[in-house]
Structures are given as structure tokens and as C-alpha cells.
Design brief:
CATH class of chain B: Mainly Alpha
Number of strands of chain A: 0
Helix content of chain A: over 70%
Distance between the termini of chain B: 22 Å
Order of helices and strands of chain B: HHHHHHHH
Oligomer: heterodimer
CATH superfamily of chain B: Globins
CATH architecture of chain A: Orthogonal Bundle
Largest interface: A-B, 22 and 24 residues
Shape of chain B: globular
Strand content of chain B: under 5%
Number of strands of chain B: 0
Structural class of chain A: mainly alpha
Radius of gyration of chain A: 14 Å
Number of domains of chain A: 1
Structural class of chain B: mainly alpha
Number of helices of chain B: 8
Strand content of chain A: under 5%
Largest sheet of chain A: none
Chain lengths: 141, 147
């Protein structure tokens, strides 16, 4: 359950990070590959070495989708409609990986925002990413 | 038997040598109580936990966070023996404190985030992996004596 203040905070943070979407996205993915090697199996068709073009463009896509959703969290199901379909019928990523990625995104935010990633921001972001992942998985079954 | 690489041993020793146990311990426990409010159930006698500001300023929480970090230190100093090092603590958490072991993972995730914000860029993916492996062993050992 996100309060109005939390939604504002989330939108503000993602607004600030949109210009560095590539960096943030690539870093979160790399962290996930380092800590959860099983997640790499979904990327066997791409070059996911650090600073590869594939990694950066993929990271950027993910962050921009998360940032877009943050603009109007109450509309997540609408905003994510096409991505829901993609993940359910084509990508078919086991949803535990959404949890791993969300955690690595939080770590990335902490490493970048340092003390600005306050417990309140962390709580709001964790809630948002959980909601995002849940909506993304809605068409899985 | 947990097998540690040289990189993992060095990384864990390095991280903990850089941590201010008081600051990090208090910040971690406070963060856990804020991000996962249901964990407050174990701290009913710790005074004012009414909101984030109260939790972050609560001296009993700060003190307990330090206790926890010093407990972690025992694992750092006994990396090849974490399970037996923590046998007593595991019994304590199960039989006296009645803490659901799922909470250990929540606290360890908060510690990862706090350490990441302290170390910034230096907390690379590989460092994170080593740190999380260490915490996973700690978490598993703390849950071992539950029955």
C-alpha cells in the first residue's frame, strides 16, 4: 500500500534517474548475474559482459519501463499491459527472478544515492518494485 | 562444508574492517523495522517505534543493532565454522526469542543495502555476491537449531 507521499517520492527518484537509465539498468542486471547465476540462462542469446551494448540497451529498456510506471502507479495494469503479454507468453521468466532483480535494483540505488537512499525511500521503492513485479506476472496463469 | 574462495575471504574481512559497527548496526536494524514493519513484533518493549523518525532516533534500537553486528563479527572471525559458532545463538532465537527465521533474511537484505550505500561504487557485483553468500551462510546457521 503506497501513500501519496511515497508515490511522489518514487516518481521523483525515477524522474531523476531517467537520464542515467542505461547505467542504472546495466548495473542492476550485472549485480543480478553476479549474485544469481541462474538468471543468466535467460540471456544466452545476448552478450551480457560488462559494458556490452546489449547489456546497456537492455538495462535501459527495463529502467525506462519502471520509470514510466512510476509516473502513475494507480495505472500500472494499463501501462504494463503489453509487457505483461510479452513476459507471460514469450519471455516466460520464472517470477522469482523479478524478486532477484528488484533486490539488485535496490542495491544499485543504494550504491548510487548513498545516504539519500533513506529507509523511507527504500521502503517506498521496495513496495513499488514488488507491485510492479506482481502486475508484470499477472498474465502468467 | 562451505568453500570460500580467497576473493570471498578477503572481501568479507575487508568490508567488516571498514564498518562502524555502532552506526551500521543501528542503521540496519532501524531500516529493517521501517521497510518491513511487521518485524516490529519482536520489539514491543523497545519504546517508541511509531514512525520512521522515532525508529531512527530510538536509542534501544541503536544499541540492539550494535549487538547484532557484533554477533555477525563472530561469523567473520570463524568463517570455516559458522554453523557451530552459531549453534547457541540459533537455539536462543528459536526457544527464547521465538523469531521466525524468515526475518533473518530480511535483516540481511537491509544490511546489504546499508553496506552498499556506505561503499558506493566499491560495492561491485562481485563484492555483493561474496557478501550475500556470507550472509546466506549466517542466515542458514541461525535457522539450523529450530525444530
Amino acid at each position: 500500500m503506497l501513500s501519496t507521499r511515497e508515490k511522489e517520492l518514487i516518481a521523483e527518484i525515477w524522474g531523476r534517474l531517467t537520464p542515467v537509465a542505461e547505467d542504472i539498468g546495466a548495473e542492476a542486471l550485472l549485480r543480478m548475474f553476479a549474485t544469481e547465476p541462474g538468471s543468466k540462462t535467460y540471456f544466452s542469446h545476448l552478450d551480457i559482459s560488462p559494458s556490452s551494448a546489449h547489456l546497456r540497451s537492455h538495462g535501459k529498456k527495463i529502467v525506462l519501463a519502471i520509470a514510466e510506471g512510476a509516473k502513475d502507479i494507480s495505472q500500472l495494469a494499463v501501462t504494463l499491459g503489453p509487457l505483461q503479454t510479452l513476459h507471460a507468453y514469450q519471455l516466460r521468466i520464472d517470477p522469482t527472478n523479478f524478486k532477484f532483480f528488484s533486490h539488485c535494483m535496490l542495491v544499485t540505488l543504494a550504491a548510487h544515492m548513498r545516504n539519500d537512499f533513506t529507509p523511507v525511500a527504500h521502503a517506498a521503492m521496495d513496495k513499488y518494485l514488488s507491485a510492479f513485479a506482481a502486475v508484470l506476472a499477472e498474465k502468467f496463469r | 562444508m562451505v568453500v570460500w574462495t580467497d576473493f570471498e575471504r578477503a572481501t568479507i574481512a575487508d568490508i567488516f574492517s571498514k564498518l562502524d559497527y555502532e552506526a551500521v548496526g543501528g542503521a540496519t536494524l532501524a531500516r529493517c523495522l521501517i521497510v518491513y514493519p511487521w518485524t516490529q513484533r519482536y520489539f514491543a518493549n523497545f519504546g517508541n517505534l511509531y514512525n520512521a523518525a522515532a525508529i531512527m532516533g530510538n536509542p534501544m534500537i541503536a544499541k540492539h543493532g550494535t549487538t547484532i553486528l557484533h554477533g555477525l563479527d563472530r561469523a567473520v572471525k570463524n568463517m570455516d565454522n559458522i554453523k557451530s559458532t552459531y549453534a547457541e545463538l540459533s537455539v536462543l532465537h528459536s526457544e527464547k526469542l521465538h523469531v521466525d527465521p524468515d526475518n533473518f533474511k530480511l535483516l540481511s537484505d537491509c544490511l546489504t543495502i546499508v553496506v552498499a550505500s556506505q561503499l558506493g561504487k566499491a560495492f561491485t557485483g562481485d563484492v555483493q555476491a561474496a557478501f550475500q553468500k556470507f550472509l546466506a551462510v549466517v542466515v542458514s546457521s541461525l535457522g539450523k537449531q529450530y525444530h
